[in-house]
């Protein structure tokens, strides 16, 4: 097997250039890493033994593909690939896509398609010129759309914990955006569509998005039934067994409708959860009209620049419709939001937007220069930001306003902005039931000659400017005997793995535990948490925890939490 670490981190880099700490897991004799599809090699590495990994440093990443090949006895036996956001397309990037003539989404020319839905995703136009509509919850318009377990509860977002994305290449199709976003769930996940009575063909599109990566045999890991209008049309669907990991699958079912609706559901799951990537409903009756639009939270949009409503905001989406700026970082609240995408116009000195929200909603405005906001009535700072990568990197401050159902919203700015809207909810924040105590730098003893202390990204922190020779230590107290978790808050300013040595001593200076720590690189301008523990039970009492730098240049530390 061979597995490139970073499948879930497509925004790892926002620019091309020299990169470090690219790790590949494999049990092969050798692994070769490429920056294109089997081209632009960074060379082979030999396996050093059980428990070791393959790591490339100081390599010049220029393209959006990482491609690894594993060899046994000189023969290629396994491969893996990831696709990155923000970087230029590799010369052989298109080799990852299926031929149009073999695309699983090719339409039946004898049918009239009434609905095409991108489940869990945005509006999308495929290579055949067909428009797939964004997935909008049934609760938003009461005409057609999705339902899930969240509809049984008040104050829970309609799509909460039932939508996900997969950034990997998809086999057997050109329509990656259809298959990289999806809905998942148990027997509460369903779709409703009003239709005229008559005969229809329901096309359901799937791919196995989780199980089977890295040559794992995932047969039987996901088993679910498919039902249309409460009649089971297929039992024990096993996507991996049919096609493997992330391979597009099409299933067609002929049905007769006499109740004026088509309901698609997944009534029974023997393993895992049901997933669905796209839905198309068609008929031979050419007189039936095609549904060409959806209604979400944003309605009646008007603006003085070309603009359109987009759905399911995610990193990798384009800031402007006509410029190569893509989102590299979003506040958690904006993932999956509806948003307004504008056309960039360098001659425009004022941007005006006017729309209505169809239900109670939180409206967000993000802009680079906060002084450019003219109309800020009711908007407050969120202390969060979004960032763009690629051709131009921008950092945008985010403001928020809560609006009532059918409230009209006006936004005016002197520069381009992002406007996003989410269903208004007040879910209580999660918390850990275990008690914990935090210790910041005010409680720490810092020694050495190669450190600086400063406020960095809303945290008071110590930054190590040399690789070694510095220490930061805390005195802690625990009231109950037990093994304790130690959570170190840190950030890195480069792609290198950092190394510390942690020592725990009791009040008399006796060594309780000593261990090396390998701190992984983290997203720039983000604080990460490295978790370790005391290594064994310790008694109630006072202890010293010392972190000594071994290879820690450009590492910043702000606090520890004992739990």
Automatic annotation (TrEMBL):
Subcellular localization, as worded in the UniProt entry: Endoplasmic reticulum membrane
Span of domain Malectin: 114-278
GO molecular function terms attached to this record: carbohydrate binding
Pfam families for the chain: DUF4982, Malectin
Domain DUF4982: 20-78
Highest taxon above the source species: Bacteria
Membrane topology according to the record: Single-pass type I membrane protein
Primary location recorded for the protein, binned into one broad class: endoplasmic reticulum
InterPro entries hit by this protein: DUF4982, Galactose-bd-like_sf, Ig-like_fold, Malectin_dom, MLEC
Protein's name in the database: Carbohydrate binding module (Family 6)
């Amino acid at each position: 097997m061979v597995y490139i670490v970073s499948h879930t981190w497509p925004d790892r880099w926002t620019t091309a250039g020299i990169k470090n700490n690219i790790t590949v897991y494999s049990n092969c004799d050798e692994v070769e890493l490429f920056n294109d599809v089997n081209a632009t090699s960074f060379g082979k590495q030999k396996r050093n033994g059980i428990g070791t990994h393959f790591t490339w440093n100081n390599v010049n990443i220029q393209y959006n593909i990482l491609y690894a090949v594993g060899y046994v006895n000189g023969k290629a036996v396994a491969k893996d690939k990831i696709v990155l956001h923000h970087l230029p397309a590799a010369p052989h990037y298109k080799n990852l896509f299926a031929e149009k003539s073999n695309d699983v989404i090719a339409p039946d020319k004898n049918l009239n398609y009434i609905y095409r839905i991108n489940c869990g995703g945005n509006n999308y136009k495929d290579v055949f010129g067909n428009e797939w509509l964004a997935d909008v919850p049934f609760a938003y318009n009461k005409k057609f759309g999705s339902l899930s377990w969240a509809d049984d509860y008040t104050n829970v977002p309609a799509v909460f914990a039932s939508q996900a994305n997969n950034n990997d290449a998809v086999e057997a199709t050109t329509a990656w955006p259809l298959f990289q976003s999806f809905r998942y769930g148990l027997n509460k996940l369903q779709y409703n569509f009003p239709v005229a009575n008559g005969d229809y063909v329901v096309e359901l599109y799937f791919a196995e998005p989780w199980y089977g990566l890295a040559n794992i045999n995932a047969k039987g890991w996901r088993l679910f039934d498919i039902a249309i209008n409460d009649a089971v049309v297929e039992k024990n669907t096993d996507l991996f067994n049919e096609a493997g990991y992330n391979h597009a699958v099409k299933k067609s079912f002929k049905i007769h409708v006499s109740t004026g609706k088509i309901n698609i559901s997944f009534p029974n799951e023997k393993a895992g959860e049901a997933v669905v990537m796209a839905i198309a409903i068609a008929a031979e009756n050419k007189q039936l009209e095609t549904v060409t639009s959806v209604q979400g939270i944003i309605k009646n949009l008007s603006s003085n620049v070309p603009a359109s409503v987009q759905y399911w905001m995610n990193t990798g989406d384009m800031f402007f419709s006509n410029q190569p700026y893509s989102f590299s970082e979003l506040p958690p609240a904006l993932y999956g939001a509806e948003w307004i995408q504008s056309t960039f116009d360098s001659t425009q000195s004022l941007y005006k937007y006017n729309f209505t929200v169809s239900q109670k909603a939180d409206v967000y405005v993000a802009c680079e220069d906060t002084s450019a906001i003219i109309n800020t009535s009711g908007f407050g700072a969120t202390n969060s930001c979004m960032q763009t990568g690629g051709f131009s990197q921008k950092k945008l401050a985010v403001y928020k306003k809560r609006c009532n159902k059918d409230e009209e919203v006006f936004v005016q700015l002197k520069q381009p902005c992002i406007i996003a809207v989410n269903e208004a909810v007040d879910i209580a924040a999660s918390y850990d039931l275990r008690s914990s105590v935090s210790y910041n730098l005010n409680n720490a003893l810092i020694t050495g000659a190669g450190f600086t202390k400063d406020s960095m990204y809303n945290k008071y922190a110590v930054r190590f400017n040399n690789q070694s020779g510095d220490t930061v230590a805390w005195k802690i107290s625990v009231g109950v005997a037990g093994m304790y978790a130690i959570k170190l808050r840190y950030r890195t300013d480069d792609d290198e793995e950092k190394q510390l040595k942690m020592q725990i001593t009791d009040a008399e200076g006796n060594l309780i535990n000593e261990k090396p720590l390998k701190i992984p690189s983290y997203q720039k301008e983000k604080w990460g948490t490295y978790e370790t523990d005391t290594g064994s039970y310790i008694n109630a009492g006072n202890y010293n925890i010392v972190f000594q730098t071994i290879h820690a240049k450009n590492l910043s530390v702000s606090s520890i939490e004992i739990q």
